[in-house]
Write a structure and sequence with these properties.
single chain; 288 residues; alpha/beta; two-stranded antiparallel ribbon; 33% helix
Length: 288
């Protein structure tokens, strides 16, 4: 089976109608944007952030060193990288439990989610297969032992679920995005149940996280979004030129796996969304 074409953060579903599909596009990004400020100020801000991020990049291999307290190093590094990019984190909700073998799930907005979750609950990510080919992020993905998923091949999905289940059984934290694609942050997709089967097979709990990107004045932000016709560079450029982006991370109640992946997915979606409205994907995109 051939891999479907991709556009920005989205997968073109023209060849495979069962693939997750978001309705977000450039208009969504504009709806949650904000004025970056005067040009000289933007130039100085951007230059400082780029230089800081470039200087920090060589430290990525440290994340793979198997030393005691590595998770603390990973959290610190991700927080530092976010700060270099002009992003701050605010954590709320329940306590972050130091458990082994936990499946972490959240909504998916941006490439920035990797650093945001890594700053709170570092683990191996289930991510699009071509992520390892991206500049800078690809190197980080390989070091963080990303579990690649080719959403253009439904036949390979069971093997990905088995890999996640084995990682959980071995006591590793695994992070997955059950929506299956990125949304702008103003709208959201449904949680698809397939990946939750791994938690059931491994008999391990699931930790839901709610990620909400906001401007410094509290308004919802689409600056980090990676949707529609976006390129990675366009998304990165919006982040590093913005005045400040604040990611609010809400730690939901830990969910026991149970025996029904659809029930588990529904419970986690409720924990992640809270009172937020959920934009349902087209019916033909809903798959097990």
């Amino acid at each position: 089976m051939t891999t479907p074409r991709t556009r920005g953060g989205q997968t073109d579903p023209s060849e495979h109608p069962w693939l997750p599909r978001a309705s977000c596009d450039g208009s969504c990004v504009q709806a949650g944007s904000a004025d970056a400020g005067r040009r000289p100020v933007v130039w100085i801000r951007t230059t400082v952030r780029v230089v800081a991020a470039v200087l920090l990049a060589p430290g990525v291999p440290l994340l793979a060193v198997p030393l005691p307290g590595r998770s603390h190093v990973q959290r610190f590094y991700c927080r530092l990288m976010l700060r270099c990019l002009g992003v701050r984190i605010a954590v709320s909700g329940g306590p972050i439990r130091n458990l082994q073998g936990v499946l972490v799930v959240s909504g998916h907005v941006s490439w920035l989610d990797i650093f945001t979750i890594g700053a709170v609950l570092p683990g191996s990510f289930v991510a699009r297969a071509d992520l390892v080919e991206w500049p800078a992020l690809g190197r980080l993905a390989r070091i963080m032992k990303v579990i690649p998923i080719d959403r253009g091949s439904l036949r390979r999905l069971p093997s990905v679920v088995d890999t996640v289940a084995q990682r959980l059984t071995d006591g590793h934290t695994v992070v997955a995005f059950p929506e299956g694609t990125t949304w702008c942050g103003l709208a959201y997709g449904r949680f698809r149940p397939a990946m939750f089967q791994a938690a059931i097979d491994a008999a391990r709990p699931v930790q839901p996280l709610r990620l909400t990107y906001r401007h410094r004045d509290g308004r919802l932000s689409t600056v980090p979004a990676f949707v529609g016709e976006d390129t990675l560079w366009q998304s990165v450029r919006r982040v590093i030129t913005a005045r400040r982006t604040v990611c609010h991370v809400h730690v939901g109640a830990l969910q026991l796996p149970g025996e029904d992946r659809r029930d588990l997915a529904a419970r986690c979606e409720t924990a992640v969304r809270g009172d937020q409205a959920v934009a349902t994907a087209p019916a033909h995109a809903l798959v097990a």
